Amino acid sequence: MNKLKKISISVFTLAIAVLHPCLHADTPGQGDFGLGLMIGEPTAVSGKYFIGRESAIDGGLGLSIINNGFWFHSDYIYQLWDVFDTTRDLPVYFGAGGVIHKREIKETNKEKEDKIDFGPRILVGAEFHPRKYRFSFFGEVAFNIFILHELDIAPGLAFGMRYYFE
User: Fold this and answer.
1) Disulfide: which of 8, 49, 71, 75 matches 42 by Cβ 3.0-4.6 Å?
2) Residues 39, 12, 90, 123, CA torsion sign
3) How many CB atoms lie within 10 A of CB 153?
4) pTM
């Protein structure tokens, strides 16, 4: 495992460990922390930690399928629980955060090089929380803006599932 992956995993784990004892969410029949998989762009292990009923921190650690590389993102999310009148189990959410992406880039007349890029991202999505169950299904669209080597906007679309721990 390379150094960037180790640092990213350590920072995410440390943040959850430090914040967990002092923060408590009022989520519907679930725990505060969910862990699962997301498939799409990116394909990643996905985590979400509620810091209140309407707010959460999420993150993903995995691979970019389109840009072929390692991927890490983390976002602050605001959830709207009553957008749909039919149920309170389907909040719509939006948020912003950051993304780090390690990818292979071939420059003109040069060999391929691994480059690390980062930048801000914005997202919107929806997450279905079935009552009395400890899992959820979600889908989201994100716009990632890479700024380090060259300005690049990379859209993302992913669907996933998380299991919530107590």
Assistant:
1) 71
2) negative
3) 10
4) 0.76
CB-based contact 79:86 (threshold 8 Å): no
pLDDT in tens, 115-147: 888 999 999 999 998 878 889 999 999 999 998
Contact assessment for residue 49 and residue 76, using Cβ atoms and an 8 Å cutoff: no
First to last CA, the chain: 30
Q: Which amino acid is at 73?
A: H
The domain 3-165 is classified under which CATH number: 3.40.50.970, 2.40.160.20, 3.40.50.261, 3.90.45.10?
A: 2.40.160.20
Instruction: Give the other-Cβ count within 10 Å of 68's Cβ.
Output: 10
Cβ–Cβ < 8 Å for 127, 91? yes
**Dihedral angle sign, alpha carbons of residues 40, 41, 43, 44:** negative
The closest of 135, 47, 63, 149 to 106, measured between CA atoms, is: 149
